[in-house]
């Protein structure tokens, strides 16, 4: 049994696997492995990091209509309806994880909410670990990933800063709208060393 889920880690893996394609589930397992490494290096509860990593994309393959219904039913920020799965699977996904998996730990739920957008000063070490593990898992091969891994190995703070700067730059180059929380995250972390 885990402290954070009513069952074993194997039970949790099975429940997550049942909701995801094999491609997505393999990503989740790589994020779990990377989160474990970062948690150990940064004094974060390893079991908590593993649970957060396993569930971070639990809602990733849900339908748009399910997300839009939950935004209304759960009285979430109505502006969420203007965004898409990239934002919804974290922010709204935390509600699904809470309801379907009975995960009550607020730090885990917040790490899921923040894994694509980050957060400003309230971002816990656990949230930083999941944010970076999702970005750096060993299946990732984007330009700069090796530098990002080295930077994060030296400093989790520097890794978070690196990721949010490069993510915002990428979105600006694509000339796409940027979720407001990502801008708030950028404005905070740009000054962190």
Average pLDDT across residues? 96
Beta-strand portion reads under 5%
- What's the shape? globular
Any low-confidence stretches, pLDDT <50, length ≥5? none
End-to-end CA span: 38 Å
DSSP helix count?
A: 11
Determine the fraction of residues in helical runs and give it as a percent range. 55-70%
Order of helices and strands: HHHHHHHHHHH
Task: Kindly provide the radius of gyration, computed on alpha-carbon positions and rounded to a whole number of angstroms.
Answer: 16 Å
Tally of strands = 0
Overview of this protein structure:
The longest helix is centred in the first third of the chain and has 20 residues, at 22-41. The model has no long low-confidence stretch (mean pLDDT 96). The protein has helices at residues 9-19, 22-41, 46-55, 64-73, 85-91, 93-101, 106-114, 125-136, 145-154, 156-173, 180-189. Helix 2 (22-41) packs antiparallel against helix 3 (46-55). The termini are far apart. The chain has 193 residues and is mainly alpha-helical. The chain is built from 11 helices and no strands. The chain is globular.
